[in-house]
Amino acid sequence: METKTVLERYAYYYNVLQKLGTFKLLDSPTLEDLSVAGGMVQRAYREMKSENFDGNLIDYFCYLSMHFLIFQAGNEKKENLSELTKHIIFKGLETDRNNFLRLFHKNPYVYFDNVSKEGLELKHSTFLLLSNAWFLYTLKERYPEHNQKIDNLFKSLKDG
To answer: Total structural domains in the chain?
Structure first.
């Protein structure tokens, strides 16, 4: 997706994206939960059709957050799948990161098909990194009393 399109769509759906990103990763938010207006829904469906996006509206909103995070990472990181992924996990905005991880958990190929021309070995290691991150973030949501232990696991994930 072109930078201009990413920024325009991100700005238009900003409030919805931020609200979606506050839901726990194990929750299944609905359009009603997000209070999405009818005109916004119609626009999103038109955009999904023009992008040939295969998913539901919640997935599409997560897809927009993913593209914003890719844009935010900068061109130098886009060339390196591992660096891009670490930037998203550890430096991306929390709400957008949550949206991204929600979509990744449902369909990891959306990410890989949009960023990587690299080989399967690197995709496998990136998949493991993202899967571990998703798992650790869900642990933090479910067991906040263990945040210190979980933060130590994040540190080892970041350093590893």
So the answer is: 1
